[in-house]
Amino acid sequence: MAGSKTDLPQNLIAQIRYLEDLFTVDTQKLKAISDHFVSELDKGLSVEGGSIPMNPTWVMAFPDGHETGTYLALDMGGTNLRVCEITLTDQKSEFDIIQSKYRMPEELKTTNNNEELWDYIADCLHQFVETHHGDCAKVDVLPLGFTFSYPATQNYIDEGILQRWTKGFDINGVEGKNVVPMLDAALAKRGVPIRVTALINDTTGTMIASAYTDTKMKIGCIFGTGCNAAYMEEVGQIPKLAQLNLPADTPMAINCEWGAFDNEHKVLPRTSYDVAIDRDSPRPGQQAFEKMIAGLYLGEIFRLVLVDLHDNEEVNIFKGQDIAILRKPYSLDSSFLSGVEEDPFENLQETYDTFAQKLNIVCTLPELELIRRLAELIGTRAARLSACGVAAICKKKNYKSCHVGADGSVFNKYPHFKARGAQALKEILDWPEKSNPKEEDPIEVLAAEDGSGVGAALIAALTLKRVKGGNLAGILHPEHFK
Ligand code: GLC
């Protein structure tokens, strides 16, 4: 068979073995990681705190499917700004949605002047309102749920103090500040009739949107440019909220910000490549877990290994070729890696073509074999490590069976991510073999409903409902919910 491993030169076989050792996380290690994860989740809820922020979000109920009303939602993601208008209809668990997407200009992600960011967002919202409602000057104020998917401390649901930028963003003058008045000011300046009523993390939105249509949904996860999860805790289990004197069984959604897990490098099996990524990132020492899993970094890990194997004289892949394009940091994104894993041809023709066209590198068949294996190893490690977080929340909450709503480009598009994650969960939680392969796993990670659209609308609706019911906990501007 052309390209079978037996044809590989000895040094490449040895190299593949070495990479397999480096990137494989075995069952025992998965278990150790998830056990440590449980204690770190606990620490994050304590008064002293830990590296996982465990931010209370003031989302204090699951939806029951009977929420109604019309809301705007804004999602400030990495590639797009999405604006939606969502109507939760009288039909149980149903909604209508209209939406527009606007490109997020790359240069805004690292601008020195944060006003440029807020002005751009206000312009997009202005355009949306004018298109769907007509002259802004004549429109009544519309409530908006703002999905801001970065770690933000929330003393109130309508406030969000950015702890630090993640996912490659680095905009001056926003860290440590409340982002809501910044957006409100830009909206006021342009006369856009919108008021930010709730600040939402994508994971919380995902959990709530998914629970709207499936009551078994207990956790929301994002496996995309970043990686994070939210779940519903009880206030009595959150020592850092004890001073509020709320009844112990009051529900409170927690945005874990688990990307920060193991920032102190106690358990994660980091390679020299992971260390290099962290060192050269805008926030070294932060988001240790996320940097091994999230879409932003998968292509970069892969690139760093290939450059290293080229420069290493004993291996010297792509011998004699100019790898200048490959040397450019962040030149390969996770879709490049997906492409390699998806190549359907025995001789890896598509991978050969991609390397030739995009990187100007002509690969030999043994090199292609190594490339494919490396992509598998990196993608598998990401999926298996992700499962440690899901298992940790389930262990902490003693969930023996539930659904987990997941969203994000890696979850939705990366080949085998779901199956690899499911396999890892089975290993961590010691599930027995299924008698029927079609049977559900006790804990199933499923594609979520639209968190930053429907989820944001539901959170606005749930908040409105509790304000009306007289529960003003965590509401800075009750008048905005009237
Ligand atoms: C990063 C952000 C977090 C977000 C996640 C997924 O980890 O810090 O807030 O939920 O990416 O988008």
List the helices and strands and how they pair.
Blueprint: H1 10-23, H2 27-45, E1 55-56, E2 69-76, E3 80-88, E4 95-103, H3 114-133, E5 142-148, E6 152-153, E7 161-162, H4 179-189, E8 194-200, H5 202-213, E9 217-223, E10 227-234, E11 251-255, H6 272-279, H7 290-293, H8 295-311, H9 334-342, H10 349-359, H11 365-397, E12 402-407, H12 409-413, H13 417-429, E13 443-447, H14 451-468
Parallel strand pairs: 2-5, 5-8, 9-12, 12-13
Antiparallel strand pairs: 1-11, 2-3, 3-4, 6-7, 9-10, 10-11
The site of alpha-D-glucopyranose has 16 residues, from helix 5 and strand 10.
Explain the overall architecture.
The chain has helices at 10-23, 27-45, 114-133, 179-189, 202-213, 272-279, 290-293, 295-311, 334-342, 349-359, 365-397, 409-413, 417-429, 451-468, and strands at 55-56, 69-76, 80-88, 95-103, 142-148, 152-153, 161-162, 194-200, 217-223, 227-234, 251-255, 402-407, 443-447. It is α/β, with parallel strands linked by helices. It has a 6-stranded mixed sheet with strand order 1-11-10-9-12-13. A hairpin with a 6-residue loop joins strand 3 (80-88) and strand 4 (95-103). The protein starts with 9 loop residues before the first helix and ends in a 14-residue tail after the last helix. The protein binds alpha-D-glucopyranose (GLC). Alpha-D-glucopyranose (GLC) is lined by residues 149-151, 166-167, 201-203, 222, 224, 226-228, 257, 259, 290.
